[in-house]
Structure formats: structure tokens, C-alpha cells
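Researcher: Re-running this chain for the archive, since the previous output was lost when a drive failed. Same request as before.
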Amino acid sequence: MSDENTLRSQLWASFKSRALVYLEMYRVLDEELGEHRATELLKKAIYRRGCDIGRQFERYGPGDLVGLKQAFLEFIPDGGKVFEPEVVACDDSRLEIRLCRCPLKEAWQEAGLSDAQVARMCEIAGVVDNGTFEAAGFRLKSETWQPGRSGCCHLFIEKGV
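Model: Regenerated C-alpha cells:
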């Protein structure tokens, strides 16, 4: 295996490991505090991490969607292969990106979670995007993966105020 393929394999393994850490954190919190509180706390922590990530995009907020698009696409590891982003639209008022693949979702599916459980974990993990774009000064509406839908997250980013 080439060095590049080895690194790519290790990168995917690290994303999948992150997904399984989220899952175990959720399970422990669920056992201790119940489903609602577990979801709430995990989302809070992941949102905060997104805010940390979003600081690198602040120079584009609240209105440079074209600059944000380029910076965000360059941020996705392995030249975008990890999430296979598809820019659906980008103009002065909105940026729409569909993530066609997600190693976290794949890890949860490989772990044998039901579609409903995978959807819940995607909803929880997806708040990283809220933190990222909101901390950078933008507004975000997102649709995380749901059973029967291909791909993964669908991000709708608008200028902030």
C-alpha cells in the first residue's frame, strides 16, 4: 500500500473512531441521565467544538459566502474525499452544500445501529456545523441524514447579521 493510501486509510479510521466515541459517550449519558438529557449534553459539547472550528472562517463573516465556500471546501480533509461535498448553489445571498458521504454515518451503520439510531447520531453530530458557521458569523439551517435519503448532511448557509 502506498504512503498516500496508508494515510487515507488512517484518516478514515480516525473519523470512524470519532463516530464510535460519540456513540459510547451517548450511551453512557443515556444510561445515567436518559435519552433527552444525553442528546442535549452531547449536542452542547459538539456545538462548542464547532465554534472552535468556526473561528478560522470568521474573516468571511457575515457576508462573504464565496470566500467561505472556498475556505470550507479546502478545509475538508483529503481534497474533499472524506465528505464528497457538492456545491448546489453559491451566490451573494446563500451557499448550499450537500455532503454526499460521511465516515461517521458509515461507522454507525457498520456498528449495526438501526436507521433511526443512525439518524439520531447524525442529528447530534451535525450540530458541529451549526457551531462552525454560526461562530464564523453566518446563519445555518441543515438537514441531517434521514432513512431513505442518500448522502448525508445538506447545509443551507446564509449571510449573518
